[in-house]
Amino acid sequence: HDNAGSCLERTLVMIKPNMISKSDQIIPEIEQAGFVILQQRRVRFTPEQASDFYAEHYGKMFFPSLIAFMSSGPTLAMVVAKRNAINGFRQILGPTNSEQAREVNPKSFRARYGTDTLKNAMHGSESQHAAEREIRFIFPDSITEPILSGDESTQY
Ligand code: RTP
Ligand code: MG
Fold this sequence. Notes:
The radius of gyration is 15 Å and the shape is globular. By secondary structure, it is α+β, with helices and mostly antiparallel strands. Strands 2-3-1-4 form a four-stranded antiparallel beta sheet, sandwiched between helices. The longest helix has 11 residues. The chain contains seven helices and four strands, in the order E-H-E-H-H-E-H-H-H-E-H. Helix 2 packs across helix 3. It is 37% helix and 18% strand. The site of ribavirin triphosphate has 10 residues, from strand 4.
């Protein structure tokens, strides 16, 4: 089996404020790429919540502009599932810099919807640890264990 050894994962995806108006176009693309949307929520981040969500970047040059951007309007957050969802979504997301995305992966979300390094249209968790933390951050009531593991995942 092709996917033997791979694991059904959940990752946190966000459509950032500059592209939330394109959600009706973006969501079917996420589903066509094989991701199942488990939960979805519109979030209006306060600057404090955005700072907390992006705490790993505190102190960096771009932190103030990141916080201003992420609290400039609503964001659409969703929990999506697929085999290897975390890396798989980062692949179709493209690099952080939208201009670089247009060069290296023109079909990626950031290539097509992003503007630059800051306004890069979408977010996807970058590791298992980040995914768990971010899902809990946005969906505090959601289950915290992996949805399925081992042999069970083949039934999905
Ligand atoms: P994300 O967390 O939003 O999915 O993006 P990422 O992993 O590709 O990039 P990361 O390094 O985690 O940066 C988080 C967000 O901060 C903004 N940023 N601006 N040099 C800059 O101006 C700069 N670098 C990063 C972007 O909005 C980036 O997605
Ligand atoms: Mg990141």
